[in-house]
Task: inverse folding
């Protein structure tokens, strides 16, 4: 396939996927239905700082989004908790790992592109329950914290960002010659549908993973998914379509 694909992300979050699509001549057209805002989670940080003595050998930082690492570093500095930056980092997917490394964090475990998969890897990697600091967004999937807590790990969650709906007047025009649409989250699927008038555009749709595909199906959008929930796998299927 060549042409344009609409994607429910901000232009700054499309660079990695776009570089993978360049060889096949496919261009992303960002349609950022959610906008990124910083969060100062005062209550969360109080809890984390109260538990700093518990963060010993075997403790982990966990990050599930590329949006989290840079904001976490900034919030650590603002809250006088720089010792957290010495902990090993476990991430959901290679994109989050790259973002964490760019923030000078020490990534030691890269899980698959879903929270449940990373939780299982962490449980396997730790023979005994430990303390996990989950650096996250306000709206997050429950599987990762639930599985870690059920396995006996002490989970400290601190919110560093939130994604709010972009006002309709600020959304860009859809533009001509669209070959497909990529939906990047369950919330984005609903907001995309709202933005285009309640009916999916007459072209193929893809979701990054099964959770988004299921949510999209529930509102009448039929989506395909790549073999794996990674940008590399998504780029491969888009280029072959």
Result:
């Amino acid at each position: 396939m060549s042409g344009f694909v609409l994607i429910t992300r901000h232009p700054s979050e499309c660079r990695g996927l776009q570089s993978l699509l360049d060889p096949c001549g496919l261009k992303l057209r960002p349609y950022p239905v959610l906008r990124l805002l910083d969060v100062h989670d005062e209550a969360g940080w109080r809890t984390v700082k109260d538990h700093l003595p518990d963060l010993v050998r075997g403790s982990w930082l966990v990050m599930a989004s590329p949006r989290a690492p840079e904001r976490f570093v900034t919030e650590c500095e603002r809250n006088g908790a720089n010792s957290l930056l010495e902990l090993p980092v476990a991430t959901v997917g290679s994109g989050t790992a790259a973002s964490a490394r760019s923030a000078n964090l020490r990534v030691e475990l890269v899980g698959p592109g879903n929270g449940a998969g990373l939780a299982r890897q962490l449980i396997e990697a730790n023979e005994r329950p430990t303390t996990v600091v989950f650096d996250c967004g306000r709206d997050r999937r429950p599987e990762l914290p639930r599985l870690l807590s059920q396995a006996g790990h002490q989970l400290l969650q601190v919110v560093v960002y939130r994604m709010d709906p972009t006002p309709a007047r600020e959304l860009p025009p859809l533009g001509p010659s669209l070959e497909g649409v990529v939906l990047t989250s369950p919330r984005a699927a609903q907001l995309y549908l709202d933005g285009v008038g309640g009916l999916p555009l007459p072209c193929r749709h893809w979701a990054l993973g099964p959770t988004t595909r299921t949510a999209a199906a529930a509102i009448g959008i039929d989506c395909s998914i790549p073999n794996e929930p990674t940008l590399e796998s998504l780029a491969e299927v888009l280029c072959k379509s």
Observations:
- The longest strand covers residues 154-165.
